[in-house]
Amino acid sequence: MESLDTLRADLRAEQNALDDLVAVLSGEQWATPTASVGWTIADQIGHLSFFDASAATAVLDTDAFYASIEQLVAGTREHGIDDFTLSNFRSLTPSDLLNTWRRNRAALNDAAAGLNESDRVPWYGPSMSAKSFIGARLMETWAHGADVVDALGVSRESTDRLRHIARLGFITRKWSYEVRGESLPHGTVRVELEGPDEATWRWGPSDADDVVTGPAEEFCLVVIQRRHVDDTTLVTGELGQHWLTRAQAFAGGPTIGPRPRSER
After folding, report:
1. Going from the N-terminus, what domains does the chain have, and what CATH number goes with each?
2. Crossing angle of helices 130-152 and 162-171, rounded to 10°
3. In the chain, what are the helix, strand and coil shares in percent, each to the nearest 5?
4. What is the CA 28 to chain-centroid distance, rounded?
5. H or E segment at 194?
6. Cα 135 from Cα 133, distance rounded (Å)
7. What are the pLDDT digits (tens) for 122-134?
8. What is the pLDDT of residues 87-112, one digit of tens each?
């Protein structure tokens, strides 16, 4: 498993890669709609900014973080979650929004620098190990970067940072069922993915009942609900297919990913 220092460095690298992409956008491009209903590219960055600040609080002040959850729940009931989490960012210029995200993610990275491997961090759902927590922030950054990339119609380089997201995707198989109030089906699943460096990343028992194989990037897009498994080249059996149609590698309530292109 990766060291905390590697995870911290990879989180910063993923943040910087997205920063490089959006920093050169025009004001008109910041207003480009994304696949998230009602969200622009600016909203994707505002979302990251809000939850990077929340993540810093979760590391540094548990009581304040739990209080912020109560505020989030109350604000969501009164205004809706988008208005509550994004309204302050929607009033900012693109330049101010970008600078706010830079400050908030710097606060997160400073807080994460003090974490030890034995630490657990509260979050929206079960508490997380320090490694999973930092990996989850990397995943969120990459996921919302995917929304930006898709909205702009551009491509981005796949990196070996995807292994953190793929690992989270694998270890959250049980969570993907629990969050829906479903029981985990009997049987084990192994994942064998082709990384961008031509290495093979493996998780799960060698004698698993089913295996998921294919490109790591496609697997990551499925577990963060940016692609339907039917729109990828991933290969698996019935057990793996059943999982990947409901895979959810992130916290919060159950959400539904995109439908297959054939049904749109």
Report:
1. 4-156 (1.20.120.450), 163-253 (3.30.1050.10)
2. 110
3. 55, 10, 35
4. 26
5. strand 189-194
6. 5
7. 998 889 999 999 9
8. 999 999 999 999 999 999 999 999 99
Our CA angle for 227, 230, 231, nearest 5°, is: 50
Helix, strand or coil, per DSSP, at residue 191: strand
Q: Dihedrals φ, ψ of 125, to 5°?
A: 135, -150
Q: Which residues pair with 211 in a beta bridge?
A: 190
Closest CA to 160 of 115, 122, 193: 193
Tell me the whole-structure pTM to 2 decimals: 0.93
Tokens of 122: 């509260």
The tokens for 8 are: 């911290």
Which 8-state DSSP code applies to residue 224? T
Can you tell me the distance from the alpha carbon of 152 to that of 88, in angstroms, rounded to the nearest whole number?
Answer: 24
- Count the Cβ atoms, other than its own, within 10 Å of residue 161: 22
Helix (H, G, I), strand (E, B) or coil at 129: strand
Residue type, 101: W
Assigned token pair, 46: 């505002």
